Amino acid sequence: MRILFWGTPEFAAAPLRALVGEGFEVVGVVTQPDRPQCRSRKVIPSAVKQIALEEKPRPFQPQRPRDPDLIEMLPATDPDSPSVA
Predict the structure, then answer these.
(1) Looking at residues 43-57, what average pLDDT do you find?
(2) Cβ contacts of residue 53 below 8 Å, gap of 6+?
(3) C-alpha of 81 from chain center
(4) What is the pTM of this model?
């Protein structure tokens, strides 16, 4: 199954890691742009982006979910359509 994963917070890292570990084909990860963290204001990627970089699904970081560049590029990832049971 080809999956396009959406998530940013720390708790989204575990489901992404589980999907990859179970052998699902994660074709891309949509996550929020990197932002300055803590007092140092150092730009640190989210845990979800770090997993995407390690596991090789391409990370997408649009400013908004309706970003025209993201909408244009998503069909190229060719994720499977959800089935309704």
Answers:
(1) 89
(2) 45, 59
(3) 17
(4) 0.81
